[in-house]
Design goal:
By secondary structure, the chain is mainly α. It is built from 16 helices and no strands. It starts with 20 loop residues before the first helix and ends in a 12-residue tail after the last helix.
Length: 405
């Protein structure tokens, strides 16, 4: 296993062959922090019809508001985490998330609700950037790629389970209960993290000013090269989700129950592939796994084009299953290699990486949804374009030197 060690100035590095209790606690904290991103999106999906009746308006825009805030907020909280530490930023983000969710449950106007969703997205951005930073602070090489794969697996537990839980809460206590559950879970998480979460920020992280640090981070070839792979992988999965209702329900005739089962089943597939990828990284290394992941996504693009127009759900979900495995095997290694140079300034790097992923995914998925083309054809062509570009960027001839800042 690659070196796994805490680099906080308050802790002594452990031997390379072991994972310290400190690093293990940081991993658990990162997993807990990252869960609040998908929870803020998926838990209340089943409550949307009830919310539309309450507000007498379409509330779907609240998803876009949350995601936009989640992306841009990382540019604020990443440098702040480098300056004052990971723990205060993470705890502050969770408390902001909890307060916004609680007030959203009591909102009577759509405008006020959307403003609170923006604040909730800001809270999620703080917890998200700290989750990715914690991993880089404590792990390097293949071990870091494995932990990023673990975060990806954890992220996909929520889409598989949260809509069912949200539907049960809404049927039992109304749509407000979904946001009360979000608030309560954030408070409980903050309490646990205040007790157990280690501070991992290296002392030298606060030495450079935020503006200079951001310029240095953005100029790093590894972040641009492997960050592009992260952006492409997330954009393709978000595009699949965006196009799925039109392909499967509107044109394919799939009922809502079957659609939910297909959606949840694919999330479980991503989770399983992420766990498998975690093991395979240890065997083959992160660079090989990145190549395998991109090649599998290219295969998915070919299948989407070849099966376009065929009857039944399988013509879409079979290639999507292949795409999801490629996504799982790409994102962990690409995240690890994008973050590798940043033993200092990891918060800034995580902020740029996270913001870029969210905004690029939102732009690509919205663009594909607006095209007057069959969804599977548009997605297949985009998969070939983006995965092919990433394969070219990461070819052996383009290998780069990754110098820590």
């Amino acid at each position: 296993m690659a070196a796994c060690f805490p680099i906080s100035c308050r802790h002594t590095p452990m031997p390379k062959s072991s994972v310290s209790p400190f690093a293990r606690a940081a991993t658990l904290a990162a997993i807990l922090l990252i869960l609040f991103n998908p929870l803020g999106i998926d838990l209340y999906l089943s409550a949307m019809p009830a919310m539309q009746r309450h507000f007498q308006a379409d509330v779907a825009i609240s998803l876009s508001v949350f995601i936009f805030s989640l992306g841009l907020g990382q540019l604020l909280f990443g440098p702040l985490a480098d300056r004052i530490g990971r723990k205060p930023v993470a705890l502050g983000g969770l408390l902001l998330y909890a307060a916004a969710a609680y007030l959203a449950s009591r909102s009577d106007s759509l405008g006020g609700f959307l403003g609170l969703r923006a604040l909730q997205g800001l809270g999620a951005s703080a917890s998200s950037v700290c989750a990715f930073t914690l991993v880089r602070d404590c792990f390097s090489g293949n071990a870091a790629a494995q932990r990023y794969s673990l975060l990806n697996a954890a992220l996909n537990v929520v889409p598989a389970m949260a809509p069912l839980l949200g539907g049960w809460l809404t049927a039992r206590w109304g749509w407000q209960s979904c946001f009360l559950a979000l608030a309560g879970s954030a408070v409980l998480a903050a309490a646990w993290l205040a007790w157990k979460m280690p501070e991992t920020r290296p002392a030298a992280s606060s030495a450079a000013g935020p503006a200079m640090g951001m310029r240095q981070v953005l100029a790093t070839p590894a972040l641009r090269r492997y960050g592009a792979c992260c952006c492409a992988a997330l954009a393709l999965i978000v595009s699949y989700v965006t196009l799925a209702p039109a392909v499967l329900i509107a044109r394919g005739g799939v009922d809502s129950t079957t659609f939910g089962l297909l959606f949840g089943g694919n999330a479980l597939l991503v989770m399983a592939a992420s766990f498998l990828g975690l093991k395979l990284i240890g065997r083959f290394g992160q660079k090989a796994m990145l190549r395998y992941g991109l090649n599998i996504m290219l295969l998915a693009g070919v299948l989407l084009l070849a099966l376009s127009g065929q009857p039944g759900a399988w013509h879409y979900m079979l290639p999507i299953g292949v795409l999801s495995v490629g996504f799982a095997w790409t994102l962990g290694p690409a995240s690890g290699m994008a973050m590798a140079p940043f033993s200092q300034g990891a918060g800034r790097a995580a902020a740029l990486l996270g913001c870029g992923q969210m905004l690029f995914a939102a732009g690509v998925s919205a663009g594909l949804a607006a095209l007057p083309l069959p969804g599977e054809w548009a997605l297949g062509a985009t998969v070939l374009l983006l995965a092919g570009l990433c394969r070219w960027l990461t070819r052996p001839a383009a290998a780069i030197r990754e110098n820590p800042h």
